[in-house]
Amino acid sequence: MLADGNGEFTQMLGLEMDASGFGMAMRSQRYALIAEDGKITHLNIEDGPGVDVSSAETMMALL
What we know:
The protein has 63 residues and is of the alpha+beta class. It contains 2 helices and 4 strands.
């Protein structure tokens, strides 16, 4: 788990989204990743609402 209060990590990944149309500011897309030795080995990005590819069960199966 990683805290990203300023959204810097999210910006580096290119996963920010503009939610100003919903009364919010820039937000992070929903995603989950696995990193090994500082290298991203799996990056699962949700297409819409829900947790189909970013669920704990999905990510645990990739370990």
